[in-house]
Amino acid sequence: MLSRVAERMYWFGRYMERIENTARLISVNTNLVLDLPRVKHIWSSLISITGYEENFSTRFSNQDERNVIKFLLTDERCSIMSSVRLARENARTTREIMPREAWVKINKLYLHLEKNLPKALKREGRHQLLSEIVSYCQELNGYLYSCMSVNEAYNFMRIGTNLERADMTSRILDVGCLNLLNTEYPEIREYENILWMNVLMSLTAYQMYRQHVDDAINGEDVAEFLLKDEKFPKAVAHCLADINESFTLLPNPDEPLRAVTHAQRVIRGCDVPHLLSSEELHGFIDEVQADLGGIHNQLSGAWFDFTSSP
Amino acid sequence: MELKNYHATSNAWDELLTDKLRARRGLRDITTFLRKSSLKDLNQRRYDAELAIRSMGITFTVYSDGSNIDREWPFDIIPRTILNKEWQTIEKGLKQRLTALNLFIADVYNDQKIIKDKVVPKDILASSRDYRSFCEGMTPVYGVWAHICGTDLIRDDDGAVYVLEDNLRVPSGVSYMLENRNISKRVLPELFENYNVLPMDNYPSQLLETLSSISPRPKDFPEVVVLTPGIFNSAYFEHSFLAQRMGAELVEGSDLVVGDDDCVYMKTVDGLSRVDVIYRRIDDLFLDPEVFNKDSVLGVPGLMRAWKSGNVALANAPGSGVADDKVVYTYVPDMIRYYLSEEPILPNVPSFLCSDKIQRQHVLSNMENLVVKPANESGGYGMYIGPRESKRRTAEMKRLIKANPRNYIAQPIINLSTVPTLCDNAIEPRHVDLRPFILQGDRSYVTAGGLTRVALVKGSLMVNSSQGGGSKDTWIIEPLSKREKT
């Protein structure tokens, strides 16, 4: 398969995952605000999760609901709309690889959002549109899962999906901790339980967590679950294992494999209770993010930026 | 829908209705359908078609349209029909024509017999924009240079079919032809029940077959790729469509590299992988910066070297455009007689060569009744249509012809035939042409029908999509016998 096409499939996987994650994130936090009307920094935490603080501050000074939602939905570079546009562009240039329905689906999502996105700026129309976005993404996943051969193209897409997913899980976990450590609002500790529940719900992890952990919801178990669980699809360890498997199906995977097994060892070896009690979780997640970046660099080097002569 | 005022706006030959508003032979079910349908019903079907086009992302690009790189494909739901009996003759004529054109290209790059025998004058090669001296001495597999040809056909007032031009460089439109059929099956399913409409969807397999047959390595499954200039090209949709349907890689110039062994490789996740056949959708001059346009970033350095060494096949072969020239066009009937010793089955539109002094005089003094075309343009660019041009433009055109007579031909105005078309509130006649696609490799193939382009503006003869044209599905019909109709 062509390196250029492989790269586009990889990014297609990443953007599709990003679209769905962002939609869920906004949706869950819109609900949270109703529970915690006195906590003001919920909206700004969405900007920290996405890591777009700089881009945001060039457009807006105030991190209030209106601005944050507008930014995450419509910004030219950092929003759901921009991800949809890029996913569609990647799908268009790989249309000969992807099942036809998949292209039609992403194209429809684009046309739908182009017309209806403003509805989600206000709370009353938001839930409806965001859940439509999620179901578009899920239908697309379904088409790909059931109609596409598990070939190289599929594997590159799957790697993109999993890397993006691991990235988002670690970010959401990170911001969950930062919220609790926020010294401006010491009263937030009262809501610790609700906040951790919110972290789980942002990742649609609540139900699976409940089945997995008997104890009441607490930071230690949530962090442990989201980092180390091997079975939950959004847990970092699961994503990494999936990436590892995809790598082994591709030609000459040594360097990328080295990078992913390193990250797997780091996750497996971490002591979550200690990280939480010593307030080192944030620093640890930075390290995990750097490892994910390292995996991206290694796979680009091995399969995309390929240069050699016959 | 009423059809009784149908002929009020046009006196051209209509493909569906006679002068007396009766259905042409074999086509009565279509006129009955149109008469029975309400405007609301037809508009609903049109809406369904537009929706399908939008969601399937069937688009084309107009270069002048700023940042909007994909516009939806304009489509009229009422099909254009031709009876199979007539089509059989047209098909033979098209094969005959492409066979002769390929013999001509092979000849001009080798012995130039046709010039030595004074059938075609020598100076038309010297002045041809698409003659590539680089190709001299080459003989591609089967002696075929132009493997894919799109020939534009038109029908005049008398009902006769003429060849308007042959597109031998990188003809496009075939994907729209196939998509049009998909859409009309969706929106007019009941009409298909009453007819035997010849299927056309085997074109991609035929194309793959043709391309595979010219592989320099006679293997079962040669590596065939489609070379596209990229997403900003007007026909990008088609490039990806054909690659998808053939199961071939869609490559850009930067995906390919020519090795020291003069073979072409593509950059894959496995490393470099040899390419046998390139269906290139890039113009000659951009193919290889080592030989042609030095600044081209679309092409592949060394590609011509690989082609000349016989390590890769290019379709169409570089230099094929020499037969796509509108001056060369005027000699095609002579070529058919010369190479095949046959009479041409399909006539040319009568043409005047501005390079000839007497014919030029005739053109210059009858400008208002003629269409003047530059020899090397396509897509309707640079065309002059006598009756509707200003005095200023006429003077300008005369000056251009005098300055470079070789670059122009003139033709009488042909009143293109019409087909009923769903307009705002009525069914009205609109002018059409037809572009069938002809393949030639180890054997020949003609699409069952082709792309019918329709001038959507009342009275207009400009069918090009870049000039406000739309398209229709084209039905080659084998009428069912009474017994088959249930």
Topology, please?
The complex is a heterodimer of chains A (310) and B (486).
Chain A: H1 3-35, H2 42-50, H3 53-59, H4 65-74, H5 80-92, H6 100-116, H7 123-147, H8 152-181, H9 192-202, H10 206-212, H11 219-228, H12 236-248, H13 254-269, H14 272-277, H15 281-304
Helix pairs in contact in A: 1-2, 1-5, 1-7, 1-8, 1-9, 2-4, 2-8, 5-6, 6-7, 8-9, 8-11, 8-12, 8-15, 12-13, 13-15
Chain B: H1 28-36, H2 39-56, E1 59-60, E2 71-72, E3 75-83, H3 84-108, H4 113-116, H5 123-126, E4 148-155, E5 161-167, H6 174-187, H7 189-193, E6 195-197, H8 203-213, E7 224-227, H9 236-246, E8 249-251, E9 256-258, E10 264-268, E11 271-274, E12 277-280, H10 303-308, E13 313-315, H11 326-329, H12 332-340, E14 352-353, H13 357-365, E15 370-374, E16 384-385, H14 391-403, E17 408-412, E18 418-422, E19 427-435, E20 437-440, E21 444-446, E22 451-455, E23 469-479
Parallel strand pairs in B: 3-23, 7-8, 7-12, 12-13
Antiparallel strand pairs in B: 1-2, 4-5, 4-20, 6-23, 9-10, 10-11, 14-17, 15-16, 15-17, 18-19, 19-22, 20-21, 22-23
Helix pairs in contact in B: 2-6, 3-12
In summary, what is this structure?
The complex is a heterodimer of chains A (310) and B (486). Chain A is mostly helical and 310 residues long.
Characterise the protein shown here.
Chain A has 310 residues and is mostly helical. Chain A folds into 2 domains: 1-147, no CATH class; 150-310, no CATH class. Chain A has helices at residues 3-35, 42-50, 53-59, 65-74, 80-92, 100-116, 123-147, 152-181, 192-202, 206-212, 219-228, 236-248, 254-269, 272-277, 281-304. In chain A, helix 8 (152-181) packs antiparallel against helix 9 (192-202) and helix 8 (152-181) runs antiparallel to helix 11. The longest helix of chain A is centred in the N-terminal third of the chain and has 33 residues, at 3-35. Chain A is globular. With 486 residues, chain B is an alpha+beta fold. Chain B has helices at residues 28-36, 39-56, 84-108, 113-116, 123-126, 174-187, 189-193, 203-213, 236-246, 303-308, 326-329, 332-340, 357-365, 391-403, and strands at residues 59-60, 71-72, 75-83, 148-155, 161-167, 195-197, 224-227, 249-251, 256-258, 264-268, 271-274, 277-280, 313-315, 352-353, 370-374, 384-385, 408-412, 418-422, 427-435, 437-440, 444-446, 451-455, 469-479. In chain B, helix 2 (39-56) packs across helix 6 (174-187) and helix 3 packs across helix 12 (332-340). The longest helix of chain B has 25 residues, at 84-108. Chain A binds chain B through residues 1-6, 89, 92-93, 95-97, 100, 103-104, 107-108, 111, 152, 156, 250-252, 303, 306-310, and chain B through 54-57, 231, 240-241, 243-244, 248-252, 254-255, 257, 259-261, 263, 265-272.
